[in-house]
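Issue: ligand-bound run for nicotinamide-adenine-dinucleotide - logging full I/O for the record.

Environment: standard queue, default settings, no custom constraints.

Inputs:
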Amino acid sequence: MSQATRVAFVTGAGAGIGRAIAQALAQADHAVVAGDVNLSAAEETAATIRATGAEAVASLVDVTNVDSIDSAFNEVDKRWGRLDVLVNNAGIARVAHLLDMSIDDFRAVFDVNVMGTFLCTQRAATLMRKNRWGRIVNTASISAFRASAGRAAYGPSKAAVVSLTKQTAIEMSRDGITANAVAPGPIETEFTLKHHPDAMRRAYERSVPLGRYGLPEEIAAAVCFLASEKAGYINGCVLDVDGGFLAAGVPD
Ligand SMILES: NC(=O)c1ccc[n+]([C@@H]2O[C@H](COP(=O)([O-])OP(=O)(O)OC[C@H]3O[C@@H](n4cnc5c(N)ncnc54)[C@H](O)[C@@H]3O)[C@@H](O)[C@H]2O)c1
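Outputs:
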């Protein structure tokens, strides 16, 4: 590994947006740890990266479990002795009307999306501050800012991710660590195949000024920028990558 190569840990890297982020960071000269609760999916991601000649390992990590997080980040410390980039991308949704949302589902969503982001941030920032340089990028969502049907748990959890991003930014900046978030609009992944019925898909296509779903690679490009040296003065921000959804008023 060259002195310049940075080490990046991506959670939820076994599928969709996380896989694209892991691949893009590898192309941008990072050694990548593809973390996921689904180890075989993470291994697939790491294999696609190694096939390009870049460095990648898979890591079994459940972001809701402290022991699992500790062992994943200890492995990084043992192997590289450093961590430069953390992408808190693992996320889940449970879709139900406010009145039907169960306590278990509400808790599950907050556990992965909020507690997972918090725990991984704590562990990663502890490693990053040894080198006084770090980039933390969180995957929020347009649902942090605009409510849509069925998102009584998901929307508030992503709003908490935005708040946690700002909190991380102000508390870690003196250690050379920035924290930012991306807010994806609807993106073509397994996640939307599962959670967006046809009527919702058509509604999104009408509401997004660019008239289409985004691609995982389009989120990955934004994350890569926020993780780069060039983004050094961007801190505590949310970058909307949503085809104009959050900006839109009356379209015609
Ligand atoms: N797809 C979209 O339209 C969209 C829009 C806005 C935000 N997002 C956010 O982007 C992120 C990725 O979404 P996606 O569409 O790629 O989802 P996905 O469901 O396709 O992939 C999510 C990955 O996270 C992993 N994961 C789930 N729980 C985990 C846990 N406890 N620990 C570790 N890994 C875990 C899954 O195994 C899976 O590999 C999520 O945070 C999601 O909320 C997605």
